[in-house]
Write a structure and sequence with these properties.
It comes from Streptomyces tubercidicus. By secondary structure, this protein is an alpha/beta fold. It has ten helices and 44 strands. Helix 5 runs antiparallel to helix 6, helix 8 packs across helix 9 and helix 8 packs antiparallel against helix 10.
Length: 533
């Protein structure tokens, strides 16, 4: 563009005064500030028109970035532009931009075109932009777009961000396809901060990889007429995905803010908060979260056909501590977690929860979550009987030493299963439940044995049977005789020596049958318990 050492702009560019100021600031790395000093008129999102004294052409900005003049002696070139109105299209597609770039409080007349370009660091702060087209963009450092308002979507498909991607307090409206942010295949080496983001359309992060944490604290994702507000299957976050509330500080530069722009922070008790809110479905299927997936204080507003889908996710900790969805479904089928931190008030009711194949190791309830409510939680997830959720709950309870609660869960499983059986099997099930609770309460068998033994002893004391062979029968003992009838395996040499008739014969038959029922039921229950252990 210029001869070596020549820092003047080509004469045919015919620079305006604003562009000449920007040109000189670029050469010495200083800020070109085109503010006029009136906050209302300097607001890039306001209604006031900006005059020619603030206008710079997009092609002049592109020329500085792609083939700019050399720096002043002892300085480093950088584009630091504040309060400018960038006319036409700023197009640096495919270019390699070495200078540091920071545009603050700027307005763009047309979309920002950055596909396949390479930056060191790019910061757009509090700018008004019609659209950001940045598929496959690469940065060595940060890409920042905090507090920007983008009218027709951001495309970051297959972008590679060297350090952090910041979208705090950004407002993004949908494009023609109904997407607000299209970032499929995005790679961020460190954090993706999108706190208090407002997204109106589908936020798509299919197959994205985040090297540290992804924070959507206090954000609002709204796509009520589309299928999903957040579509992020196969998302990988090396640490934690925060879909939680954000504390609202007194100023954007409070402690807890991330310099230099400020952000929300995790609220402490008593702090005024802004919830994470998702209006529309959410899909996180097959996601991998290295530390946790956190839904504390989250609110989901869904239609009946929309889902919060967590199919086959894997994470050491799932914190399901949000507000109960009034409509839609929560899907946990095939998910694998170690710790499930939850509240009874967070889960949807009957038909609103699916968790076939959901595996967890430890339950960590917050607040009041007794076993009765936990059983309702399982029942809500199984409108049709399925044994796996009951067995998973029982296994988790046994892991923490709550064996009696585990038996109650398995008993509840048998009762649910009984509802699916034909009449004969159902009758047999009621008998097992009434007598020994399917073997999960074996103490009942001893009680019934004692009762039947007492009844049998009294009856046969009053109506002793005659001996089978005179002179060969042992001394008559109604206690041992009734006990011998009740015990199906042990032989006390009593029942075979006497020949009951009439009513005594029926009484003996009842005792024998009752003994077999009690014994087999207890044995079946004991074998089930041994198999589980």
């Amino acid at each position: 563009m210029t001869e070596p050492g020549d820092g003047d702009a080509p004469a045919d560019l015919q620079l305006t005064s604003a562009e000449w100021s920007m040109w000189q600031a670029f050469r010495n790395g200083s800020t070109c500030d085109l503010h006029i000093g009136d906050p209302a008129r300097d607001d890039p999102h306001g209604q006031h028109l900006w005059g020619p004294e603030r206008r710079v052409r997009g092609r002049v900005v592109a020329l500085l970035l792609l083939d700019g003049p050399p720096p002043q002696p002892g300085r480093v070139t950088a584009l630091k532009l504040t309060g400018a109105y960038i006319t036409d299209t700023l197009d640096v597609a495919g270019g390699a931009i070495k200078p540091f770039v920071e545009l603050r409080d700027c307005r763009f007349e047309a979309e920002l075109v950055l596909p396949e370009s390479r930056f060191t660091t790019l910061r757009l702060v509090n700018c008004a932009i019609p659209r950001v087209e940045a598929a496959r963009v690469q940065t060595e450092g940060d890409l920042h777009l905090p507090r920007c308002v983008v009218q027709s979507g951001i495309r970051l498909t297959d972008a590679q961000i060297g350090t952090d991607l910041m979208l705090n307090q950004t407002v993004v409206h949908k494009d023609r396809q109904g997407r607000s942010i299209m970032a499929d295949g995005l790679t961020v080496t460190q954090d993706l901060q999108a706190e208090m983001l407002e997204s109106y359309g589908e936020l798509s992060l299919r197959g994205a990889t985040i090297g540290v944490s992804l924070s959507l604290r206090g954000s609002r994702l709204s796509n009520p007429f589309g299928r999903r507000a957040l579509n992020a299957p196969q998302l990988t976050v090396e640490r934690t995905l925060y879909l939680t509330a954000a504390g609202l500080p007194n100023s954007p530069f409070s402690s807890g803010a991330t310099p230099p722009y400020g952000t929300a922070y995790t609220p402490s008790r008593g702090t005024r908060v802004q919830r994470f809110e998702c209006e529309g479905g959410m899909r996180l299927d097959d996601g991998r979260f290295g530390d946790a997936l956190d839904f504390e204080h989250a609110r989901f507003i869904m239609e009946s056909d929309q889902e919060l889908s967590l199919r086959r996710i894997q994470t050491p900790e799932l914190r399901f501590l949000g507000e109960r969805p009034q409509r839609g479904r929560v899907i946990l089928s095939g998910a694998r977690v170690v710790n499930l931190v939850d509240k009874s008030a967070s889960w949807p009711g009957l038909g609103g929860l699916w968790m076939a194949g959901f595996a967890y190791e430890t339950l960590i309830p917050r607040g009041h979550f007794p076993l009765s409510l936990r059983l309702q939680w399982v029942a809500a997830a199984t409108p049709e009987y399925a044994p796996e959720p009951y067995e998973m709950l029982a296994a988790s309870l046994r892991t923490t030493g709550e064996d009696s609660d585990a038996r109650e869960v398995l008993l509840a499983k048998q009762r649910r299963r009984r509802e699916t059986l034909p009449l004969a099997a159902k009758t047999w099930g009621f008998l097992q439940d009434w007598t020994v609770a399917y073997g999960y309460r074996p103490g009942r068998a001893a009680v019934w044995m004692a009762i039947l033994w007492a009844i049998g002893t009294i009856y046969f004391s009053m109506s002793p049977p005659p001996p089978l062979k005179t002179g060969e029968a042992p001394p008559w003992n109604p206690y041992l005789y009734a006990l011998d009838l009740l015990l199906p395996v042990i032989d006390l040499n009593q029942s075979a020596a006497w020949k009951p008739g009439g009513g005594a014969q029926w009484a003996a038959a009842i005792l024998i049958l009752a003994g077999w029922v009690l014994a087999t039921t207890v044995a079946a229950g004991a074998s089930r318990l041994l198999r589980r252990q």
